[in-house]
C-alpha cells in the first residue's frame, strides 16, 4: 500500500512515483490554468481563485494525532494529545484543532510529508522490518472562490473541498507477524479500520477461504448508498462587506441629497437677493454708462494730447541732436581758438623778448644827432682834403713821369685810395666814429 501511494520517488513526473506525488502534480498544474478574475471600468469578469492548505495526521489505535506538530508534544500515543473528530451541518466531518499549512507547490507538500513521516509510528514485525502501525492521511483542503460576471457589488461563491490521500497500515495476523504486548492492540485496531475501508485478498491458494470471506463482506458493503454533494458556502464576509458598502453609499447619497436641498434653499434666497440687487444696479448701470462716455471722451483727448506730445518730443529730440552737433562744432572751434591764442601768446612773448633785446641794444649803441652832424662834417672835411691831396698827387705824378722815364720809377704797391683811407683813419678820431646800430633821434636821449 505504501509503495502504491508514495512509490520510490516523490517526484510526480518520475516513473516510480506513487499516487500521492502524481495527484499533487496534477492538482497544482490545474491550479495554474484557472482563469483569474479581473475588473474593468467597475465591472468584474468571471474568474477562479483557489487557495490550498495541507494537513497530515495519523490514525493510531483508533485515535487521531497531528504529524505536523512537535513530536515531544503530539506524536506520542497518549490519549491526551489525540485530536477530536467532529461533524456539523455546514462543514460536515472534520478534525478539530488540526494544523493547516498553506502550500503552493508539490515541493512544499513533499516537505510536509517528510516532516510527518519522521513522527509516524512504525514497528518491526516478522513480516516487515518497517511496518506502519498507523494510517497516515494527507488531506489537501481546497477553497475556490468563483467570481461571476457583473457589477462591482456582485458577490462570489466559495467552494470548499478536500482530497484525502491515505497510506494504510499493514493488515497482519498475529500468528504470522509474531507481535506481542502493545503491538497486539495495534494490530487489532488496524484490522478493525481496514475492514471498514478496503478489502485485501491474497492470490495464494492457501488463503482461498479467507479471500472468499473477505469478498462476501465486500459484496454486502457495496450495497451501502453514498450520496456526494457539492460543498458550496456563500462568502458571507464578502456579502456583509458589499451590503455595508451599499448602505454606506445610500447614506452618502442621503447626505448629498440633504446638502443639495440646503444648497437649493440657499440658491433660492441668493436668487431673490440677486433680483433686488439687479434692480438697484440698473440705475447705477445708467450712471456708469454716462461715466464711461465721459471717460471715453477724456481718453480721446488724452490720446490727442499724447500724439501731440509725442510729435513735440520728436521735434525736441531732433533739436537736441542739432544742438549737440553745434556744441561739438563750437567745442572744436574753441579748442582751435585756444590753440591759436596760445600760439599768438607765445609769439607775443617772443616779440616782447626781442623788443626788450632791441631796446637794450639801442640803449647800448645810441648815437646822438649832434654827434652824427659832427661826424658828417668831419667826413666832409676829410673827403675834401683827400680830394685835394689826390689832385696834387696826380699833378705831381704827371710832372714826374714826364721828367723821369717810367722804368726808373719805383713800383706802386698800394692803391692811393688805400693810403687815403689810412690817412683818413688817421685824421678822424676814433671817438667820433659811431658804432654799428640804429640811429635814434636826439630827442630819445
TrEMBL record:
GO terms for molecular function: ATP binding; microtubule binding; microtubule motor activity. Keywords: ATP-binding, Coiled coil, Cytoplasm, Microtubule, Motor protein, Nucleotide-binding. Residues 1-197 form the Kinesin motor domain. Its main location: cytoplasm. SMART domains: KISc (SM00129). InterPro entries: Kinesin-like_fam (IPR027640), Kinesin_motor_CS (IPR019821), Kinesin_motor_dom (IPR001752), Kinesin_motor_dom_sf (IPR036961), P-loop_NTPase (IPR027417). The keyword Cell membrane does not apply. GO terms for biological process: microtubule-based movement; mitotic spindle organization; spindle elongation. GO terms for cellular component: microtubule; microtubule associated complex. It is found in: Cytoplasm. Gene3D superfamilies: 1.20.58.1980, Kinesin motor domain. PROSITE patterns: KINESIN_MOTOR_1, KINESIN_MOTOR_2. Coiled coil: none annotated. Belongs to the TRAFAC class myosin-kinesin ATPase superfamily. Kinesin family. This is Kinesin-like protein.
